[in-house]
Design a protein that fits this description.
The complex is a heterodimer of chains A (98) and B (472). Chain A contains three helices and two strands. Chain A has 98 residues and is mainly alpha-helical. Chain B has helices spanning 3-11, 17-35, 43-59, 101-108, 151-158, 175-181, 215-225, 270-285, 301-316, 334-345, 348-361, 366-390, 413-417, 424-429, 458-471; strands at 38-41, 70-74, 112-117, 164-169, 184-187, 207-212, 255-259, 289-293, 393-397, 432-440, 446-453.
């Protein structure tokens, strides 16, 4: 596992949609490096032929009858949004964004 | 007074629920300016609910097994129309449009919610210092942390705000603060308790569970909240077997294993290890057999956890985008608005975990980190399965140390993570565990001993915990 650079951290921040400040990037570069080094202790374990566990319950699919049931109250949900209009969430421009 | 005794006296009409609630609100009033266990005191809700219980008692209706018992709720449990913050600025002021199943169930059983309690932001931390609204202090020594992330609920129960509390445990967030505050804390089997209405952190690990001042009270609360829920597709579908009826059955003939990997390493205080030895001897005296057992891969639990939990968190927390709830910081386009909102709304530890998780899942690193951590998770499950062929339950410290000073680990994320080293393997395996107060360590502060059990091993786990409580 390679060394973490400032450019890596900037790239990851972009993926995570975090507008980090310069200070935060600086700080995180060092900290993430230390944590990743600790995480790398597991790299040495021989896990050939070991299947991954994504979920601790032996559950496959959970089905239910396709019945109409009440959904969340729309007005209550929209009342909690930062901006809404005509029964919808309102967001800044998406298409033709600069 | 225990929750069981309180409910008995309210049900008999010997005390009114209103009087019980008012008495507890006085304690909150007296102590919370110093301790800051509560994000919100729900006094109006509590009095209205208490009056409803009293009306039911007067009418001769069944007010439920928790009638009139005050309870505190970790502030990552949704309560319709009542502000739910996760101790984050990004949700500040948010009123959920629905109520968590566990809250519906405790209220349905007659319990009275008196506060939403403080936590590390989005349940990330081990000390309740990572709250956007300031830290909670330990009622046993206010210069120390209560542990975390359910530190508010643990401190509230320890300080007598309420005999019962609800928390959530992703890597030890119920058990470690229970140990540090000297109360009982339970992490039930994954899937035993519905998570509908629990704000998600790491979905393959998160579980809701009880805080109480006694093992029997914790059993009663678990019996109230456990069982299948159609609103949570990860809840176990088979009917739930209550544990309260079996807690007093003793430990005669049970086989208890002392886990080598969880009592061995730097940073364990000698008093903590001595308490675990004493607990083992007490169980032998009560008729159990105790032997050492090795769960070799448990020592890799922490490393695997700090890949898996941040990876899942980075995905779960993508929903805080300034569109549907809470904070928005404007930008000319959606991506800028998203990124500015998230930088302004999340605290440092949450950003650290999102970054860590995003990195671990990013192209080129996925298999080395996330894939390997998931395979190590399988190894841990296999090693526990081998141990449980020989043993009915396992024993370890809950936390390597007693409560530490505020600020002691704030500058060193890894040192903070290490305080969960004994609790994390249970979450990775999806098993059950309970922390029981057992003696005192440095500066007279409480020590917690952890009893671990396989999935759905709660009946035996509670019997062992009850025997420990008797002998403590």
């Amino acid at each position: 596992m390679s060394r973490l650079t400032r450019a890596d951290v900037e790239h990851v921040a972009q993926l995570a949609r975090l507008a980090l400040t310069d200070d935060e990037i600086e700080h995180l570069t060092g900290e993430l490096e230390v944590i990743l080094e600790h995480a790398a202790q597991i790299a040495a374990l021989d896990t050939r032929d070991v299947p991954p566990t994504a979920h601790p319950l032996p559950m496959v699919n959970v089905l239910r009858a396709d019945e109409v049931r009440p959904s969340l109250p729309r007005d209550e949900v929209l009342a909690m949004a930062p901006a809404s209009e005509d029964g919808r969430f309102r967001v800044p421009r998406i298409l033709d964004a600069p | 007074m225990s929750a069981i005794d309180l409910a008995t006296s309210v049900r008999a009409g010997a005390r009114s629920a209103r009087e019980v609630v008012d008495d507890h609100l006085v304690v909150v009033e007296e102590r919370d300016a110093e301790l800051h266990a509560c994000n919100l005191v729900t006094a109006d809700w509590a009095r209205t609910a208490a009056d409803a219980v009293d009306v039911a008692v007067r009418r001769g209706d069944d007010p439920g097994p928790l009638a009139g018992v005050p309870i505190v709720l970790k502030d990552n449990l949704c309560t319709r129309g009542v502000v739910t913050t996760c101790s984050s600025r990004i949700l500040d002021g948010w009123q959920p449009p629905y109520t968590a199943t566990v809250v519906e169930r405790v209220v349905g059983a007659g319990a009275i919610p008196i506060a939403k309690t403080n936590l590390d932001e989005f349940a990330m931390g081990s000390s309740t210092e990572n709250s956007a609204f300031g830290p909670t202090r330990n009622p046993r020594d206010p210069s120390r942390v209560p542990g975390g992330t359910s530190g508010g609920s643990a401190a509230a129960v320890a300080a007598g705000y309420a005999p019962l509390g609800l928390g959530s445990d992703t890597g030890g967030s119920i058990r470690q603060p229970a140990a540090l505050c000297g109360v009982v804390g339970v992490k039930p089997t994954y899937g035993l308790v519905s998570r509908y209405g629990l704000v998600a952190f790491a979905s393959s690990l998160d579980q809701i569970g009880p805080f109480a001042t006694s093992v029997s009270d914790a059993a009663l609360l678990l019996d109230t909240i456990a069982g299948p829920d159609p609103m949570d597709s990860t809840s176990i579908a088979s009917p739930y077997e209550p544990v309260l009826p079996v807690v007093d059955r003793g430990v005669d003939g049970l086989r208890i294993g002392l886990v080598d990997e969880l009592v061995d390493g730097d940073g364990f205080q000698p008093e903590v290890l001595a308490a675990v030895d004493q607990a083992a001897r007490a169980l032998e005296k009560a008729g159990a057999t105790v032997d050492r057992v090795s769960v070799p891969s448990a020592r890799y639990g922490l490393s695997a956890y700090y890949v898996i939990a941040p990876a899942e968190a980075s995905s779960n927390l993508a929903r805080y985008d300034g569109v549907r709830y809470g904070l928005r910081v404007d930008g000319d386009d959606v991506a800028t608005m998203n990124a500015r909102t998230r930088d302004a709304g999340f605290g440092l530890e949450v950003k650290r975990r999102i970054m860590l998780g995003t990195y671990a899942l990013s192209a080129g690193y996925y298999d080395a980190y996330y894939g390997q951590a998931q395979r190590v998770r399988t190894l841990i499950i296999r090693d526990f399965a081998r141990a449980y062929e020989q043993f009915d339950a396992l024993l370890s410290p809950t936390s390597p140390t007693v409560a530490f000073e505020l600020g002691a680990k704030a500058a060193d994320p890894l040192a903070m993570y290490l305080s969960d080293v004994c609790t994390i393997p249970t979450n990775l395996a999806g098993h059950a565990a309970i922390s029981v107060p057992y003696g005192a360590g440095e500066a007279g502060l409480p020590i917690g001993v952890q009893v671990l059990a396989p999935a759905l091993g709660e009946p035996v786990m509670f019997r062992v915990a009850r025997a420990l409580e008797e002998s403590a």
